[in-house]
Amino acid sequence: MTLQTESIVELPDGTSYRQPVGLFISGEFTTAQGQLSLDTVNPYTGTIICSVARGRSDDIDAAVSAAQSASKGWKDTPPRQRGQLLQTLAQLMRRDADLLAKIEAVDAGKPVHIAKEADVLAAAACVQYYAGWADKIKGDTLETDPKTLNLTVREPVGVCGLIIPWNFPILMVGWKMAPALASGNTVVLKPAELTPLSALYVGKLVQEAGFPPGVVNIVTGFGAEAGAALVAHPGVNKISFTGSTPVGKGILSASADSSLKRITLELGGKSPSVIFNDADLDEVVEWVNGGIFYNMGQNCCAGSRIYVQEDVYEAFLEKFIRRVEKNVMGDPFHEKTFLGPQISAAQHAKIMGMIENARTQGAVLAKGGESPHGWFIEPTVFRDVRQDMDIMREEVFGPVVAVASFKDASDALAKVHDTCYGLAAAVFTSDLKQGLGMAKSIKAGTIWVNCYNMITHELPFGGCRESGVGKDLGEDVLSEFTNTKSIRIML
Ligand code: NAI
Ligand code: MG
Q1: Which part of the chain is the Aldehyde dehydrogenase domain (predicted)?
Q2: How far is the CA of 222 from the centre of ligand 1 (A)?
Q3: 3-state secondary structure of 460
Q4: Which of 104, 317, 379, 470 is deepest in the core (most CB within 10 A)?
Q5: What residue ranges define each of the domains in the chain, with the CATH number in brackets?
Q6: pTM for this structure?
Q7: What residues does ligand 1 touch, defined as CB less than 6 Å away?
């Protein structure tokens, strides 16, 4: 069988485009050395869109070599020139935003209009933001005594392995690749096997923008093959990973067993929303509805636990259920659709199993709970959920929320912290003191007050405890992608 490096993909709106399907190594698309491929599926129809290269350890070796060869040249490229190339890439992503949104819609089941704004244009904006950082990364001078001059310099870590998930495919390319490149690293990117298409398309744009060969390499393939090989490779200096907590833990120990890489892990969560009785409930239901059902609940910071102060518990539930009923579920290519299908048969089955288990354990189903067809799952609300029930404790990664009441702030805090995670949390109140007090007390990486999911690339994002290690975004991520060197000069 002769494998291709490009496929003509027909889109549901009747248009078609040329999709790169090879591995992107040293600036060229090639087939996998084992001549293997993997199919990627449209979650709305369950049908195969096309096949992409199935990279394995020999392909990772080739990509890491390419990244190592390009490393010195890229590190020595004047920072403002690196910034200029990223700026060009951001422009090309914007130019092709309509097509990239359709690619995300077919490959990930995301509603196309949401994918354009929240995924593609947000990714382009993130690339542009780090284009601006490229020539602003700086060290320090420090006074110690009259006989020495002391400097710190910030140097790129080297070759970075970027392993990204299927829930925000192109957005995660922007989040991880842009700061890595801006700070002078070369990268090997491993997209999720369920959604490889937008990252490969970005590879084509990287080529068009004129990045030197080997600065960006993309190896599609399975986690246990390409992903594990990247983590184990001694030539890789850093891994930045977003995905499940068990795989993240495995990456940490695999890194320790190989060459002790620097590691950033952005993992799972069970993020709570705390609603006090003085909150504006009409506004609250908008935020918490988006908080859990955005991206079909497939969101690491999904607001999957809702705690409501006793006095307004019933009033909240009534308004919330009415709001949930208005969510439009259906074809990702329809303008009004808010909820598409879940990503895969396996995720669908896992989530339906968790819904079933919640009912068995006695959680009260207040809305949804069924799968109408295909990989769709109704927005599902369980009420009166006890802290010891699985649905209050385990990450569902689907459109399912657990609601319970609380007495006062200290009861709310006890419930909020009764988890192994610490990614995000939200507080709703019209009392600023209450809001700020909770924001200071809650142990999590991000706290939203009177809003939800308000992620922006200027602010660092990442959790504590089993939600991960290190940060994406903001200025903070630049220290994840650089090493500080101290220099003392005797005068
Ligand atoms: P996963 O953690 O297996 O996949 C994420 C990425 O890691 C993919 O690119 C995958 O190929 C790669 N990977 C898998 N095993 C690897 C290994 N041994 N070494 C290196 N890379 C590896 O997540 P999966 O299986 O797709 O989803 C399962 C659950 O994970 C979901 O139900 C959800 O709870 C959680 N998840 C969380 C995400 C987040 O944003 N925090 C994103 C995706 C999944
Ligand atoms: Mg797919």
Answers
A1: 33-487
A2: 10
A3: coil
A4: 104
A5: 6-267+467-488 (3.40.605.10), 272-449 (3.40.309.10)
A6: 0.97
A7: 163-167, 190, 192-193, 222-224, 227-228, 231, 242-244, 247, 250-251, 267-268, 300, 347, 395, 397
